[in-house]
Amino acid sequence: MKRHILSVAVLLFACTLVSAQSLRGSYFFETSPQRGKMNAAFAPQVNYVSVPLLGAVGVETWSNAGLGQFVFPAGGSLKTFMHPDISADSFLSALPDGDPYLKERLEMDLLGGGFRLGANGFVSIGVSVLEDGSALVPKEFLRFAKLNENGSYPGPQVSGRIYGALSLGYSHDLGDLVEGLRVGGRVKLLSGLYAGDIDLRKIEIGIDAEQVSAATEGEGHLAGIAWKDSHLRADDIALRGFAVAVDLGVEYRLRLDGFINGVNLSASVNDLGTALRFNKGVSTLTTGATASFTGLQGISTNYDFKENLQRVIDDFSRLTDISSAPADSYESPVRPSFYAGVEVPFLNEMISVGALYYRTAGFNHLMASLNLSPLYWLNLSVNGTFLGPVNNYGCYAEIIPKNGLGLFFGLNAASLKTSRHHIPINNFSESACLGLNVVFGGK
Amino acid sequence: MKHFLLKASGILLAASVIGCADPTYDIDKLDTAAHFGSGDINLPLGSTDKITVGELIGDEFDEWISKNSNGTYSISYGSDPYDLSFAVPQDIDRSLGLKRYKGRYIDIEYPAFSKPSGIKFDENGVADLSSRIAASRKIAERGFRLPFTIEKMPAQLEGLSSVLLTDDSQVKITFSIPDCLLTEGTVTPDIRFDLHELFEVAGYPDGVVTFNDLKLNSSNGYSASKVLNLKKIVINPDNFNRAKRTLDINAHIGFSGNILVDKPKTTKARYQETGSSNPLIIRVQLVNLLCKGVEGQFTYGVDSIRSRLKLTKVAQKFGGDDTPVTFTSPELHLTYSSNFSVPTRAVATFVAQRDGQTTAQVKNVPFDLPVSTNGATVKRVYRFCSNGKSAGGAVGVKANIPSLFKPFPDIIYVYLDIATDNTKTGIVELDKEYDLQVALDISSPLGYGPGLKLEYSDSFPLPTVFGDILKENRLKLVGDITNTSPLKLGLDFVMTDEAGNQLTQPVSQEIAAGGTTPVEIDFGGAMGASAKSIAKGVLILNAAPASSGKAINANDYIQADLKIQVPDGFYFSF
To answer: Would you call A397 an interface residue with chain B, using a CB distance cutoff of 8 Å?
Structure first.
């Protein structure tokens, strides 16, 4: 059973994280309703109403490390980095430059739709739920786990949150003013549902013949979740925090005659606003204790071993004790993202190549995409993304009739090399998205 | 073209979603073994208090076992004091044959000065005789003898040194000039009185008394006395007839010196009243002269005693061959107290018996008893032991006492013959009550016996992590154990499950006596799954038989300071 712990853990992350990366395959398809999420100026050529709960579901996970950084094939079996046959050099040199992390993001549209408004306008509205989380294990901590050198180390950090977003967007064609120019904006009202984080700032360990000592120090926060009797318990769903954000976008389409049909330029900034401030059901978590054991002292003929051993065990158990106290508020940052794209269509816009620079979650990315629209209702693309934590490749497919049921599906994967249980062996980025929308009024 | 693009798109899409599974990364083949620590891991385990022998023995003893201030234990078993008898001779002639001098005196007369003629008196009828009477007049040496015989001397008297006189024995010397011519002026007898052949006079160790402080004058009627306290009659040992128990004395007492006259005057009336001579009369008078005691060499058989030390209870407890304790360097103590002032000697014989049969004897052990010098009681403790050394204020007497305890007796008889030492001088006082007392006791430090089966066993719970560690690891206990006792100890450690079933082979460690022993108890290699059942540790401490004969000391202790060593780090599995 234990043998599967690692694989299950990674798979869980892989399965719970799917999202925007694969959706970015839609960025250069003019008919796609989804691309408006990345640039508020984009307006699809159809009206649409999302199928409730299935309008768009995206999950994404990425990490700067994979299975191969923690387990190693040796002697006909797979061995963990703590196996005595695995040298410290082998393990430490395999680790990434930064602290290993794992991040995930999930986004689900509950309701949504978009409609042309007048000759030049397009209105979109949406209600969605978003979840993101991350876990980080400092390299120094992993170094201790392997080398067991006494010292003080930063400990793991874990965070996650779930929040809802109500968005209202409007895009307007300014072709009358400047041919090919379109701008748009979206206002988002973010409402926090649940959140939590904990940062084990310091783990101090000293082991020698005279004393075994340890100290911990950490802090965290919870919102909508209670820490009671050493267990987490979620409260009922409620709106516990708010934030306001805006998305702004611009698109310029330059039409050309010839093999190349034009150049499309676009840029946007999203989630520009306040931090998500939770102010209900908030508590702070603190952990921190010191324990030392210098040996059982004063053992005599009537010494109570059980009591004294239990006292030592209790002392060390307190190292992981977490205490909770009510707090007024807790702010969870909402990080803005930025997109800038350029597309060159040719062959009557059945084919285009595009480059998209974007910055999300603190990372820069550059995606190159080959986009095919062999039929009006069919969009296909393959893409590769560079500069980010990991290079990845993906595809996107979308069926978008003028009237009827529209379907899209996207996948991105960084590491084609996986274990037999489909766990990425190296650093990875995996994402998937799919959705169903009822489209109508296509031109 | 569209068909081509459709086909191309399909191929690209398929290629992008098909990954490459690496068979070497098969989680099913994950080896979950792990290792912590780059070398030997040393962890503190603990240290004990000083676990003393006293704690192990306890504090409840039989009444004849006592704990000494230095922590040792002793058996102490004594007999009641035994009063010795001594018959004081009663028929001695206390008057010393001097009855005939009782109430009598001896006068010796010297001419002091003559009555001068043709003297002139002044108008007051007083004449100064300074020019007519010599200021100093030498008197010729004279004396007398006092012959007498002391009878009924003690029959036990081998030789005689002196006869002690009672404290009120005195000789009174009176100087006088009867009908003295002088009415003024002083006459001072400057007389040397030699008594050394007869008496030892208090304050005059050489027996010669010089009188120059008596002033004869008109205020004392020209008469003055001096009393001398007498201590002994000085005798010539050759005059002691042991057969007749008599002592003949014929001592000479002599006088010599001067008569000093200062500023002599007389009156006409006095001059006419007195005769022509003015002699100085020295009167010697013996007062209360009685015998107090006799100093000499005596042959008294004071007493012969037989005392016994009944050790039945001790023998019942420790008399067996497998006794856990022995009696190391047993001693027999004899406490003697006496005010007897005759040198006395004793001879002791010890006889040990077991079940009525004599098992060992120590015969004829002589030792001197103390002499009272001034009649006060003296006390001395004798320590009969194998080395005969004095210790703790007790006088050592060499005797093979340990032999009496092999085998352990249930009774020890002590025969004691006490007699005076006729080679030494002592004193027997006639009216004194002599108290002589002897008390016996046995004292022996307790030691560890040949059959010692000292075993201390204790079990204590082991945390489950202990079993987890032993499952895959070799474990050692390292450290020091200090053992100040003379016991060479054996330490066994075994681990059991909750029900007490032994899960490991006993691990043994020898602990040297009287020092600190480095300890390295190796529990061996990984135990595997059985280690999970480990719940208790059982520690058994044994005393090795080689410790026999060493003294038991409650303050001896055992103290351990131990650490856990995991050679080459921890091995464990996820």
So the answer is: yes
Q: What is the count of structural domains for chain A? A: 1
- The parent domain of residue A130 ranges over 2-440
The pLDDT, as a whole number, for residue A9 is: 37
Spell out the domains of chain B, with CATH numbers in brackets: 33-59+453-547+553-573 (2.60.120), 73-86+300-448 (2.60.120), 99-296 (no CATH)
Instruction: Work out the minimum CA distance from A156 to partner chain B, whole angstroms.
Output: 19
The predicted model gives A46-51 an average pLDDT of 94
Write the DSSP symbol of residue B466. Answer: H
How far apart CA B17 and CA B282 sit, in angstroms, is 160
Q: What's the pTM? A: 0.62
pLDDT value at position A13? 35
Residues 3-42 of chain B whose Cβ lies under 8 A from any Cβ of chain A: 5-6, 8-9, 12-13, 16-38, 41-42
- CA dist., res. A142 & res. A156, Å (int): 10
What span, in angstroms and rounded, lies between the C-alpha atoms of A64 and A134?
A: 12
The reply to whether residue A78 touches residue B30, judged by beta carbons under 8 angstroms, is: yes
- Residue A238 sits at the chain B interface (C-beta within 8 Å): no
A340: domain CATH number is 2.40.160
Number of DSSP helices (H) and strands (E) in chain B, helices first: 5, 39
* Chain A residue nearest residue B479, CA to CA: A209
B:52-71 residues touching chain A, CB 8 A cutoff: 55-56
C-alpha atoms less than 13 angstroms from C-alpha of B494 in its C-beta half-sphere: 14
Low-confidence ranges of chain B (pLDDT < 50): 1-2, 4-6, 8-9, 11-18
What are the chain A neighbours of B12 within 8 Å (beta carbons)? 370, 380, 382, 395
pLDDT digits (tens, 9 = 90+) for A102-148: 999 999 999 999 999 998 999 999 999 999 999 999 999 999 888 88
Whole-number Å distance between alpha carbons of A400 and A29: 10
Q: Take residue A343 and report the two structure tokens written for it.
A: 């597309």
What pLDDT is recorded for position B3? 54
**ipTM of model:** 0.73
Answer whether B47 sits within 8 Å of A148, measured CB to CB.
no
Tell me which residues of chain B, numbers 500 to 529, contact chain A at a CB-CB cutoff of 8 Å: none
In total, the C-beta contacts within 8 angstroms joining chain A to chain B are 176
Q: Phi-psi region for residue B479, left (φ > 0), alpha (ψ -120 to 50) or beta?
A: left
Strand partners, B229: B170
pLDDT at A272 > cutoff 50:
yes
Longest dimension (CA), chain B: 203
Q: Which two tokens stand for residue B389?
A: 């050394």
